[in-house]
Amino acid sequence: MIGHGIGLLLVTAAAGYWVLERAETHKGDLRRVGKVLGWLIIVSSLIGVVCRVWGYATCPPGATGMGKQWFCPFTKTSSATPLTPAEK
Predict the structure, then answer these.
(1) How large is the average pLDDT for residues 52-79?
(2) Res. 51 pLDDT band, cuts 50 70 90
(3) Mean pLDDT of 38-45
């Protein structure tokens, strides 16, 4: 099993590709909106996968369960440093 949401993110990227394929059959503005939406879904899903993999790579050895620490390079946050009210 792919761990902790990566599988769902990859399925979401496949759904974005499906939206792109469906957009090709339409014309005009609907085609343009479908392409933009499809690419947005694909890119955001792949960024999520990269963030998850990066988090697993930066996790200290031996950290398991609910206390597992992670770090996302895109938001520059980690589970060890909670967000301040201004960052939320």
Answers:
(1) 61
(2) confident
(3) 95
Residue 88 lies in a domain: no
From residue 86, how far is each of 80, 81, 82, 83 by CA, in Å? 17, 14, 11, 8
Nearest by Cα to 21 from 6, 37, 9, 10:
37
Q: Is residue 15 part of a domain?
A: yes
Helix axes 29-57, 6-23, angle to 10 degrees: 160
Total number of domains in the chain: 1
Identify the pLDDT of residue 53: 80
Q: Is 61 exposed, middle or buried (0-12, 13-18, 19+ CB in 10 A)?
A: exposed
